[in-house]
Amino acid sequence: MSLRHKDYPDSSFEDSNERFGLINEVQVDFAGRARVQKGTSWYGAVFIVVNAALGAGLLEFPYAYDGAGGVLVAVIVQAVLMVFIIGALLLLTYCSDVKQSATYQDVIHALCGKNAQRACSVCVSVYCFGTCITFFIIIGDQWDRFLTYAHGPDFCHYWYMNRTFTIIVTSTVLVLPLCFPKRIDFLKYASALGVLGVVYVVFLVSIKYFVGPVNPGPIRTSPRSWTDVFIVVPTICFGYQCHVSVIPVYSCLEKRTVKEFTKTISVAMAICIMAYTFTAIFGYWTFGSKVSQDVLVSYKPDPEVLVAIIMIAAKIYTTYPILLFCGRAAAESLWIDLRKLPPETIASQERTRRIVQTLIWFVTSLALAVIIPNIADVISLLGGMAAVFILVFPGMCLLKVAQEVSTSDGSRHKYRLFLATSILFIVLGMFILGVVTTQAIMHDINSGTTTPSKPKTICN
Q1: Average pLDDT over residues 449-458
Q2: What distance in Å separates the CA atoms of residue 38 and residue 34, rounded to the nearest whole number?
Q3: Nearest CA-CA partner of 149 in 373, 315, 302
Q4: Long-range CB pairs of 218-221, under 8 A, 24+ apart, other chains included
Q5: In whole angstroms, what is the distance from residue 422 CA to residue 398 CA?
Q6: pLDDT at residue 376, as a whole number
Q7: Which of 217, 380, 391, 379 is CA-nearest to residue 298?
Q8: CB–CB of 304/204 below 8 Å?
Q9: Can you name the residues that pair with 253 across neighbouring β-strands?
Q10: How many other C-beta atoms lie within 10 A of the C-beta of residue 22?
């Protein structure tokens, strides 16, 4: 199925001044380049989507399962959320196909208007920037652990093994060169390496459970209170959030149809579900309530675990550019909107803006990661914001589609179905955002972290 603008004559893209904004310039560029440059196959796109979804949150799933009340409760919550997560991916793909959109905020603009696009661009920019900071912090954590096991706890006293040095040098060498390309499908080969790293970790956690020794703490079978069920929600939302990335990936598809990209989504989500679930279940059954927030910390530092630590770092190196790409597009849309740049300027200065924006984004996120290395509660807040991208904005798009369906073919049954589903998406998303944010704030207050404290790293 491949619907175009003619299906929606009231498209919000009829304003000629908005038609040549950054997002549409990218869209036109993608479309134009596709005529002379081969796009990405659906199975090549799988690696980018999986790499965008699978992250260091994988290591937190066993701990989240324990907090939620055990495997059964967490799996049920995850299964329910997966219905909405996959449904939102398909919905966004359909809307992107209808409106010929190239980015997430482009879809919001086409269906919900300019103000909604501005709000979405702000949310995408903040979310991607915050996530990029956490990626650098996680890279520093992995190097600290590796050097502690490989050299000893006194590694901090050597300048070339210091946390600041390892983060800055390795990220500049391995991450920065991947951040400049204009098309996101450039990252498919690096993403394949990242996916292999995650597969290794999943196999390691699973095999460790079966070969032992296994001496777990208490295994929970139910939550302490009904609110504990929501402890796993931010981890799941943060873990499966690839919705901001899928539209740029879809824009680079060689055969750009919903049916073709459904193959990508199906395979990618199957891989993610197996990876997260196997790691969570076997990691939790191995350590029980004694499991660390990072499951790899719970294992003895044998060579296999050290390899896993490096694999996770490598995975983060390849995921950071995807988030930077999406955040850069959102930030540029705000910049062009604020400056009200004409189409000629947008096209002629695109390369310069892209390079400058990439350098500013990279340097500032890297500096903040070095200065503020404690991210315990940031993950929860980002998980709450991820619910907005997974549920709230797609719900708003479906609500608009429902209105257009009611005026186009007069189908009351379809209209009521779309309307009810869109309201469910929006209400559930706002509810999760409220609960998760409240839990993060209350945890911060109860643990006394609202007062400034010295950041906790291996070296201090």
Answers
A1: 49
A2: 6
A3: 302
A4: 218/288, 218/289, 219/70, 219/284, 219/285, 219/288, 219/289, 220/66, 220/69, 220/70, 220/288, 220/289, 221/69, 221/70, 221/72
A5: 5
A6: 54
A7: 217
A8: yes
A9: 40
A10: 26
Contact 261, 39 (CB under 8 A): no
C-alpha distances in angstroms, 166 versus 138, 147, 268, 354?
12, 10, 32, 26
Q: Please, which contacts does 9-12 make with residues 24 or more away whose CB atoms are closer than 8 Å? A: 10/404, 11/99, 11/110, 12/109, 12/110, 12/111, 12/113, 12/114
Residue 101 three-state SS: coil
Q: Using CA atoms in the order 202, 208, 209, 213, what is the torsion angle rounded to 10 degrees?
A: -160
HSE-up (13 A, CA, CB side) for residue 332: 30
Tokens standing for 394? 């797609």
| Residue 162 DSSP symbol | S
Q: What is the pLDDT of residues 204-232, one digit of tens each?
A: 999 999 987 777 888 888 888 877 787 78
This prediction has a pTM of 0.81
d(CA 264, CA 250): 9
Q: What gap in Å lies between CA 51 and CA 195, rounded to an integer?
A: 6
DSSP state of 447: T
How far apart are alpha carbons 265 and 277 in whole angstroms? Answer: 18
